[in-house]
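Question: does this match?
>
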Amino acid sequence: MATRVPENDPEFNLYITGTNTYLLAPDPMFGTNWQRLGLLAAEMASWTAFRNDWVLTYALYGSDNTRTPTVTKHKNDIKANFATFNESLLTRMEGSPNIVDADRAQLNIPKPDRTPTARGPITTAPDASLTAQEGAKLQIRLRVDTDATRASIHPLADGWQMVYKIGTPAPANPEACPNNHIGTKALTVFEGGMPNDGKKLYAFFRWVNISNPANNGPWSAMEIATISGGTV
């Protein structure tokens, strides 16, 4: 995650000095803003120490008479170290039940975007395979086209749907399959049933959007496997 602390020197100067003053400001119920937001005394002391070190070093850096490679390096180190130090604190304060808009403005903590991202229609079918296992089980392995070596779920899908028929004759299309199964894992095991030992299972697969079925993907080609009740 990108840091929420400005990297530009003048903006960083305003941030570290302004936030330090703001956090130390009194709060009528909790004592101070840093206490209201759940910081520890040691954490606030470290924040202030960073601020004091920065103010001194930035003043030295701002003068041609005192700007040296050592001062420049120390200035840059303060910025990097402070950004690392306070990122976890910002995350904790962001989750505080006491945070208000003024805190977010001062500390550069934006409001979370809780608007759900619309998912578009799924345009591809799963690459599916059925592998017979002993005990009348079938391993189902699904993947998207771009994942050639691993099982995977389409990023726009909640899971997948399998329609199937056990026993001949083979179904002409998905609509001719009397059975339905929904799954969410790209690699899973399906119980074919011991009474179906030796029978063929015919199946079609597609990606599904459970909240908006209109965006479900197209059906795959038919997959066929023989159910085996014994050792494969």
The first strand starts at residue 26 and ends at 27. The chain has two domains: 9-107, 127-226.
